[in-house]
Amino acid sequence: MIETTSKKPKSQANSHRSQTRLLGVDVARGMAFLGMVIIHILPGYDENSGGPTPIWTIFSGNAAALFALLAGVSLAFMTGGRSPYTGAKRIRALVSIATRSLILLVIGMTINLVGEASGVLNILPYYGLMFFIAIPLTLFRVRWLILIAFIFASVGPFLVFSAYDLVGDPFTGNPTILDLFTRPSEVFTILTFTGAYPSVTWALYLCVGIALGRLSLHRERTQVAMVIVGTVIAVFSKITSFILLARQGGREAIFDATKELALADFRDLQIFGPESYYPTTTYWWLAVDAPHSNTPFAMTFSLGVAMAVLGLVLLLSKYLMNWLACFANMGSMSLTLYAMHLILVGIVDVTPHPTFWFIAQVVFAVAFAVIWALTVGPGPLEKLVSRASKAVGSAFIPERTRPQKAAQDH
């Protein structure tokens, strides 16, 4: 288990702040993993009320957004954090990220062979492509990253809408490693435009995550600012979506353009989102902010929630780490646990007893993470990806070793 101490020598202050920051990020990553398990297993529809369950309202779309935002933070750390690498060190890091993206793509699509019929949408192949897209993004300063994030949030949804309008009924399931060779163009389309996490919109979270990773995340004023700014973004997105639909004629325009649409169906689309995508009858559909709808307001709402949660977790981690250590352990090996989760739901039908399978997975995840961290260290997949990517980076740009002082004296 991750341990903390109450006192540190002054000479170790900077190291302590950096370690606390990293542990806080792991805590947030563990919470994001837990949120995705909740969405994948527990029911989202309440038969008594006819509406969404509270857990659906809280976690749907937001857990995955937090996961993606933290991926951007990790990319910032890999490339130097507040002091971005330059020269050979930068190139080595970028080659490592490119290798990591390829490995994630292969792992994700291989897992999809097992869970092809589970109905759970695997984010790992999308991660693979997004990591590759993020390589040039790591070169930009914070202000430019914010501008690029705005472009992804505003232009990306229109590209998704246009892709569905052009293709009609595209392949939108979980692409497998076999699909990569038998229908590569369709795999590219789903990962870029028509999937659950298309890179033209979800790169928004990576942009903002990289920008946050360039800031002083250990400082309380930065963490408080993240909570405030994130809350403002989320509230603004909700209010703007409501005004456009209810006050500016958006809802009426949708019904006029979509003749077969019933009021109950529209309500469900507003709450739960579409199974694949909205009808491409009018651009007013982009004003809806349902989870996983890849509209501007859905994306920015989840971004705001993710920012606020990360800032709050970083704040609490300074004072409650002993209570949050189990989340930090899970977060430190979230790739391994997420892969295990996907394989389980791919081979076991968890729908008859969702509560049992949820509790069983959480207990297993906590126990495995704690025991593995104590006895081995990094998670197995984390170690594999890290070693392979660093090895390729070092092979491409060999690290120079400084001669020892004794040798120089001779």
TrEMBL record:
InterPro entries: HGSNAT_cat. Keywords: Membrane, Transmembrane, Transmembrane helix. The keyword Transmembrane applies. The chain crosses the membrane at residues 21-43, 55-79, 91-111, 123-140, 147-167, 187-212, 224-246, 297-316, 323-344, 356-377. Pfam families: HGSNAT_cat. It comes from the Bacteria. Residues 21-226 form the Heparan-alpha-glucosaminide N-acetyltransferase catalytic domain. The keyword Iron does not apply. This is Heparan-alpha-glucosaminide N-acetyltransferase catalytic domain-containing protein. It comes from Neomicrococcus aestuarii.
